[in-house]
Amino acid sequence: MKFDGIILKFGELFLKGKNRYRFIDRCLLTTQNKLKQFPELTFAKDSDHLNISLNGVDPEPVLKQLNFVFGLHSYQLYCGCAPEIEAIKATTLAVVKTIENDGKSIKVLAKRGDKRFPLGSPEINRIVGTHVAENSCVPIDLVNPQVIIKIMVRHDTTYVISREYPAAGGLPIGLNGKSLLMLSGGLDSPVAGYYMMKRGLAVEAVHFDSPPYTSPRARQKVYDIAEKLAHYMPNGRFVLYLVPFTKLQKEIFTHVPDSYGMTIMRRMMYRISEGVARRVNCQLLSNGESLGQVASQTPQSMFTINSVIRMPTIRPVACMDKPEIIAVAEKINTFDISIRPFEDCCTVFLPKSPATAPKPEKCTEYEKGWEWESMIDECIRGVEKIVIEAGKPLLVDTETSEEICALL
Length: 408
Ligand code: ATP
Ligand code: MG
Prior knowledge:
Elements: E1 5-10, H1 20-34, E2 42-45, E3 49-53, H2 59-66, E4 72-81, H3 85-98, E5 106-112, H4 121-135, E6 147-153, E7 158-169, E8 178-182, H5 188-198, E9 202-209, H6 216-230, E10 237-244, H7 246-255, H8 258-279, E11 284-286, H9 299-306, E12 313-314, H10 322-331, H11 335-338, H12 345-348, H13 360-366, H14 372-381, E13 384-389, H15 398-407
Parallel strand pairs: 5-6, 8-9, 8-11, 9-10, 11-12
Antiparallel strand pairs: 1-3, 1-4, 2-3, 4-7, 6-7, 10-13
Helix pairs in contact: 3-4, 7-14, 8-9, 8-14
The protein binds adenosine-5'-triphosphate and magnesium ion.
The site of magnesium ion has 5 residues, from loops.
């Protein structure tokens, strides 16, 4: 049996009071954008749902695309028919037949949205339920059914629905500002980026690149992760800023004792990220730090590192266990990319025993007497902007990478 359309329900949009209509319009716009490869679809919005008429299109690939639209709480596939009892009986029976072999008990639940319809909801339930019971072998259970068949009678049409599925959830991207994500090639930061977008923030990313210590293949990982994240952006584009970090990173490990190298390096990364964020109008930083995961992610380390900037830093995976992070990485298709074994700038210079409780005063002392401020400015001014589009993976230009390495 063919489905006629999809009803999409909004999530937390109800909490937004007067802003609700802005959120609904944004959801509609993003949904239309994500589905523009299906020109046959038509859209209608209501105060609490969107209705997509399939007009013959297979719902499978449409639903796959809808997974990238935040702000949608759930969806239901429906079969439509005229608001007449005979048509409703026939359509409901056809829907029930599609799940007949599942062996699950059902209940018919009608809702008469159009009060001009001559039968009340209990009567529709009784008439349609009897018809289904007499013409199929599906067990009816009015008290504890496994599947509820919903019948929504409207003025000009009736929807018959057999299931409700969870959608992407969250809030629509684009009304909540923008965050700059510190994106490494690892498992955590792409997941952090996904959660930022889920809460309605547009996300751009900064990546610290240290050629020749990090290879073009490490950069390729970041490009490939950015492509996966691009699918969630309403316009399907993900902006990445590459920071030329080698010179400053080498200087750090020349001037700072080994045990504080990583702390100071991360202080520099935060300063640069804040500088880039201000330039590109991001109001928040975000990253994949997870409490207790490594030396730089103890509370004392976080305090000492974070104290060099004023911009708030959101750490969406801070309280998640690694297996939980991995499950999300698999869901958003970044897992296979993140586990490719190439070095990141944080790992190549990793000291043997980094301080786990570094003190801000000591950092200030180690940051005296050498010219890091101008190098920070150079890093901020020298960022390379790359735009990566969903569905169009970008290959790292290895020749350019080799040229950069030759200059160092
Ligand atoms: P991830 O945390 O993404 O799995 P990781 O474990 O290699 O990567 P950590 O050493 O845990 O990285 O670093 C903590 C966070 O710092 C990362 O989640 C990321 O947000 C940021 N970070 C680390 N390296 C880089 C880099 N080269 N460019 C941008 N951000 C980085
Ligand atoms: Mg990590």
